[in-house]
Design brief:
Dihydrodipicolinate Reductase, domain 2; Rossmann fold; 15 strands; 9 helices; 9-stranded mixed beta sheet; alpha/beta; 6-stranded parallel beta sheet; globular; binds nicotinamide-adenine-dinucleotide; single chain; 2 domains
């Protein structure tokens, strides 16, 4: 059992505490949030002590790991602080805001020999695990292109001054909210990206930071990906991989906060399209439990430091491309 402190008692911190309560592998010990007034009722209801800064959790001998559900620009410094205190650290996405930050964060966990997890739960979707098997068996042939779209309209309810809508915390509009998950998946299947052309616009909402993001990426392997994230349309999650022998398409029925299962369509050359239904599974918890297994030395964490770094390097290039309007090289 890994004993953790959850930092950031907002939407996602509360969601994660809900999942952790069902876990036999992690136990929440305390909550951290400087906004005591907002966090205290939840802490009382969860029966967990609340402290108002991370140092108090890092000083506790009982706490073995930190789960960060905090604003994006805090992630790198909080990972470094946790690692230096000898705590394993699970950080929500994006792991960092730039290549420099992700390099610093990974160096800190490696130097201090602690585990690092990241909130890319899509990797734990049951059909994604099936897709990994298809790809590893060579059933799809050479991977040539990925088409992905992760969109939702939850932010339409946020006040205009919420940090998640600011260009500092959320450059390139939907990138840090949804696009980053699909970037991570593309890196997982295609490796490091080399060049990016991206555009973000405000088209269908009052989200002044932009609600419609489109990215076209070229990978070192020669493969490409077109990825969309929209914050002004109802939830959609679609991830499709095209190979020289066949293609696979994964459709999410709901946001991972309330899993409803998936549909997987596969078509191999010369065969009819096969459709499979997958029942709901708590992938957010599966990711946290994989982190706990890594922290306790039971199994390696499936998302490598190399992939974590490649995803953030791609993120940095997407932000540059949205600002410049030009094709930007990914500095890996
Ligand atoms: N993996 C997913 O699917 C998923 C879904 C939603 C959100 N997230 C991520 O979760 C994180 C939090 O997002 P959210 O929507 O819950 O935001 P939120 O605004 O609802 O919550 C953030 C909380 O962090 C607190 N906070 C601010 N500074 C802090 C500090 N120094 N130490 C501790 N707490 C601090 C705030 O008071 C607030 O309660 C983000 O990284 C976001 O991208 C991930």
């Amino acid at each position: 059992m890994l004993r953790v402190a959850v930092a950031g008692v907002g939407w996602w911190g509360r969601t994660i505490v809900g999942f952790l309560r069902k876990s036999a592998k992690l136990r929440p010990l305390m909550l951290v949030d400087p906004n005591r007034e907002a966090a205290a009722p939840f802490a009382a209801e969860a029966g967990l002590p609340l402290v108002d800064n991370l140092d108090a959790a890092l000083a506790s001998k009982e706490v073995q790991g930190i789960v960060l559900c905090t604003p994006h620009t805090l992630h790198c410094s909080q990972i470094v602080a946790a690692a230096r205190a000898g705590k394993h650290v699970f950080c929500e996405k994006p792991l960092a805001m730039s290549r420099g930050e992700v390099v610093r964060a990974i160096a800190a966990v490696e130097e201090n020999k602690v585990a690092l997890g990241v909130g890319h739960e899509r990797r734990f979707d049951t059909p994604v695990l099936e897709l990994e098997k298809l790809v590893a068996a060579g059933s799809l042939g050479t991977l040539m292109h990925i088409e992905a779209n992760l969109s939702q309209d939850k932010f339409l309810a946020l006040p205009a001054d919420n940090w998640r809508l600011s260009s500092r915390e959320a450059p390139a509009g939907p990138l840090t909210a949804t696009g980053i998950h699909m970037l991570d998946m593309a890196v997982h299947f295609l490796g490091a990206a080399e060049r990016v052309h991206a555009t973000v616009r405000q088209l269908g909402s009052a989200l002044a930071n932009g609600d419609t993001l489109a990215m076209l990426l070229a990978f070192r392997s020669g493969a490409s990906a077109s990825i969309t994230g929209i914050l002004a349309t109802p939830f959609v999650g679609r991830f499709a991989v095209y190979g020289s022998h066949g293609w696979a398409e994964l459709l999410d029925k709901e946001h991972p906060e309330t899993p409803q299962g998936w549909i997987m369509n596969v078509r191999l050359r010369g065969e009819k399209m096969q459709t499979r239904e997958f029942p709901p599974a708590p992938t957010v918890l599966a990711n946290l439990e994989a982190f706990a297994d890594a922290a306790l030395g039971r199994a390696p964490y499936p998302i490598t430091h190399e992939d974590m770094r490649a995803t953030i390097c791609a993120l940095e290039a997407v932000v540059r491309s949205c600002a410049s309007g030009a094709i930007e090289r990914v500095e890996n």
